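Researcher: Let's try something more involved. This one mixes different molecule types, so please make sure each is placed in the same coordinate frame as the others.
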Amino acid sequence: MELEQVAKALKELGHPTRLAIFKRLVKAGYQGIAVGDIQQQLAIPGSTLSHHLTSLASAQLLTQRREGRTLFCVAQFDQLEAVIAFLQDECCADSLR
Amino acid sequence: MELEQVAKALKELGHPTRLAIFKRLVKAGYQGIAVGDIQQQLAIPGSTLSHHLTSLASAQLLTQRREGRTLFCVAQFDQLEAVIAFLQDECCADSLR
DNA sequence: AAAACATTTCGATAATAACAGAAATAACTT
DNA sequence: AAGTTATTTCTGTTATTATCGAAATGTTTT
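Model: All components are placed in one shared frame. Result:
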């Protein structure tokens, strides 16, 4: 994975609210979690939440699936894994220690 | 590790220049790498670099050790590990898949 | 087709971050 | 103590991000 892409993902995860959102996404698994549910859990305005979701999506950290009038957000697990792999392989120099 | 603290570290790593700096720090191991060497490698102004180093330090991602007039920067490996652990434990829900 | 619901976009403001030249500080060398 | 080297702090500017109410959009229910 490219450094720029990883930096982008880390940047988007690097905000308390977005990290909290992402944590919930991951906990929800492949089924995902409704935008409205996230909003209730975090108690933040819808417009603010929507921006944060757009940010996370822009880093390929989530996808959305509509079911009626409800939008479900699903963590993009492969992207998270790629980020972790970058930190471990490119950065975490176990061999040096 | 606290979510806020992790978010802070992710935020600081989430900048292309800082991630590139950190990558070099890690590659350098416990011995570290001189500020001047980083500057040469990345070809950026000293004042800009200094700000980025301060940012990384503010997230406990590096420490500095002076040797004469040269400052060495050393990655704070335990902090990196804690961040990775958070992403894996709190976020990466392997069990769900 | 009107009302209700779920979510996004608009619009505006405030806060933070990034950048880099110039001046300052710290440490060594002569 | 003057000069040289290494790095940071100062100062100011520009750019990006965060926030959220209000209006708009898309979807379902009646």
